[in-house]
Amino acid sequence: MSDYTPQKHHKFTFGLWTVGNVGRDPFGNAVREPLAPTYIVKKLSELGAYGVNLHDNDLVPIDATAAERDRIVAEFKKALDDYGMRVPMATTNLFYDPVFKDGAFTSNDPKVRAYALQKTMRAMDLGAELGAEVYVFWGGREGVETDASKDPREALKRYRECLNFLAEYDIEKGYNFKFAIEPKPNEPRGDIYLPVVGAALGFIATLNRPEKFGLNPEYAHETMAGLNFVHAVAQAIDAGKLFHIDLNGQKIGRYDQDYRFGAEDLKTNFFLVKLLEESGYEGMRHFDAHAYRTEDEEGVWDFARGCMRTYLILKEKAERFNADPEIQGLLHELNTDSEGIGGLIRSYSPSNAQRIMEMQFDRAALGKRGYAYEKLDQLTMEILLGVR
Ligand code: GLT
Ligand code: MN
Ligand code: MN
Ligand code: MN
User: Fold this and answer.
1) Going by CATH, does the domain composed of 8-323 fall within 3.20.20.150?
2) Is 154 annotated as a binding residue?
3) Please, are residues 28 and 71 in contact by the beta-carbon 8 Å criterion?
């Protein structure tokens, strides 16, 4: 039996805002007391996490004086040192304050856009001071309720200007952040720009320094849009753009639920963990989720333990899948190419084209072939259900 105890080398991280979530929702107030960031650092370290991530204002209140900021940051750094914790990712809160109600980088008001840049530059300074390597851009308010309010082309232009600006700031300061864009289709705006992974990948190609930018895909966000998160992550990996990942649980078509990792759709989460583990992805396994609103503090730590434990269980299931002779036999059969036809397809040459043109295909026989995916999927299910 495997040991599912999280260790530092597993690179599990949580946002301060995740375990620190007090359970507020649009219909009800907080149900839990706020937890001090230094206490979160201590608790997560004891649970086996590698680090904590933060927005500027998860740590430093938006109206703190410079002296207050320095005191808070010094205290927090001491806690990180005391408990052997890192801050691998930092980001800016560009959504909570009323100033951002029409967006931050895409607001119609140039003063708001300039303020968003100032706030982000300061938050980058903070992130760099804490040793963060990835800087996330979640454009939660970058969207509209009505397209009467702004031309979407203009919004993308403003978004691009701001990201280009910040890339130069990063270079000038020598921070060397990896910038990770986090897409989301809606909520809190009616429609958010760059709604899904594919949209963000396309947008990155239009930036001045596309090499600095990648993705921070979130399970819940692609799933809200009814998309296959594993495919989205695979596309980011394929493009060399998986800089970070937000893991959680979500039902299709609902509001942003941010449930405990693995709480919904075990099969998708299984293939997700398998993909991450086999792809050589070396980044953080970050949980952007929170405990159910029904929970007290003990429930919050049950939640955090559960995220990491489920990940490790699914990792072991992936190893089991790879070691299963019947599954591997089926996969082997599916991938055999005794006539070497794959080689003809791999790249164009006049002779390969000629040979393909001359091939005789028994279309009827090809169309009759069974692929045995029912058996393969059932075997996968049995591994997940623990009987295999
Ligand atoms: C917010 C959002 C998340 C983002 C965070 C980063 S904040 O909780 O719901 O998906 O990752 O800004
Ligand atoms: Mn979310
Ligand atoms: Mn959320
Ligand atoms: Mn997220």
Assistant:
1) yes
2) no
3) no
The Cα 322–Cα 189 span in angstroms is 42
58 is catalytic: yes
For 147-178, give the DSSP string.
TTS--HHHHHHHHHHHHHHHHHHHHHHT--PE
Residue range 350-374, pLDDT digits in tens: 999 999 999 999 999 999 999 999 9
Contact assessment for residue 100 and residue 107, using Cβ atoms and an 8 Å cutoff: yes
| pTM over cut 0.90 | yes
Provide the residue ranges of all domains of the chain, joining segments of one domain with +.
8-323, 325-385
Cα–ligand 3 centroid distance for 167 (angstroms):
25
Q: How many CB atoms lie within 10 A of CB 89?
A: 28
CA-based radius of gyration for the chain? 23
Please state, rounded to an integer, the average pLDDT across all residues of the chain: 98
Pocket probe mutation, ligand 1, options 59, 182, 245, max atoms within 8 Å of Cβ: 182
89 lines ligand 1 (CB under 6 A): no
Name the catalytic one among 3, 10, 25, 55. 55
Is residue 288 part of an annotated ligand binding site?
A: yes
pLDDT digits (tens, 9 = 90+) for 171-185: 999 999 999 999 999
Q: Does the annotation list 221 as a binding residue? A: yes
Residue 135 CB–ligand 1 contact under 6 Å: no
